Amino acid sequence: MTEKIMLGFDLIMYQQYSLKIPIYAPLSAHYIVVGGSGSGKSTAVLYWLYKARKFKSQIYIADFKASHEFKGITNCFAEFEDCYQLITNFYKDFLDTPEGGNGTVKILLIDEIAGLLAHFSMTKSTKEKADTIRSILSTILMLGRSKKCFLWLSMQRYSANIFPASSGSADNFHICVGLGRLTVDSRKGLFAGEHFEGEDTILFGQAKGIVLIDGEPLRGIIIPKVSKRKLLQLLQAQTSENGQ
What we know:
Blueprint: E1 4-10, H1 11-17, E2 22-26, E3 31-35, H2 41-52, E4 57-63, E5 76-79, H3 83-96, E6 105-111, H4 113-120, H5 124-143, E7 149-155, E8 175-179, H6 184-191, E9 208-213, E10 219-222, H7 228-242
Parallel strand pairs: 3-7, 3-8, 4-5, 4-6, 6-7
Antiparallel strand pairs: 1-2, 1-10, 8-9, 9-10
């Protein structure tokens, strides 16, 4: 049976009829979530991680900007330039994992991936690290599913510079979520050619956006009203209990 987590509720049904119709997505999938400051992006990711912990999962988190929004919820955690080592550690874990996986869903969450790559691309001495990260991410996106190793990327704006256009890597995301008012480039990059009935009437704001799940039509989504601090505390408690 495929493990599924609840992402949120159908936005149109919630706004028009006050109905909470859950939207589920496979846990074993590559995720990308885009949203500006105040869009509810971090709360959404914490909520999904909390749901993911109900299944056998191992989570790696690279928090380049040291937002402290993910600290203490996994032992596989890094900030600032230490994110490079964590990403390479995940890649080694990926290479050592047999085809079909080992019974654990492995997730590499990178918060503000665009900032991380921009930082390492600034000088000749570190540019090689940026290229290595891009190569690792491309490989995981293309081959990770067969080993149950997945990539979750979070960013304020979608950037086509993360992966070379010719690689086709960006097409391998199974779950695409945009929260708040997206920029034109973000909307086009993630959901080009996709629309749904009633989209033009929605006033997108905090915790409200659109989601595209592989094999399903585009639709609106609203993240449940939950406390970011409470979610973080619950995840930290789970880590202490399970030693993850």
